[in-house]
Amino acid sequence: MDSNSIKILSIRETTFGKISDEMSIEERFQNATLRPILKFQNEKIMHFFKNYLEKRKIAFHKLNIDEKIKIIENSVRKDKQLEILMKGLIIGLFTIEELEIFVQNSNALNKRIVSMLIERLQSQIQLFE
Where are the domains of the chain? Predict the structure, then answer.
């Protein structure tokens, strides 16, 4: 493991959830890598999305809860620039070893990242008021 990978791992929390041999590669990666990074980057993710709402002039505070949930999902899934930038907040904290796993399983892991970002934003919807 190179020194950059050691530094990256030192700033992240440990694994979330149980890791077992019966788990798929994607599930292990989610618990060992994605969840700790998402937690570590939470403040930036929230700030980034709040800025996105302001730039797009979305009057989020005027919407009902169902509309807010839909706006979050549609924004992350359909605005490719936003999706790429938000995934960059996550992928940028991968170690070289994690990046290799990600590249080999990119389709499934990209879907997991997007779903986890949406869940995280929706669970903290009150921060966008």
Answer: 27-128
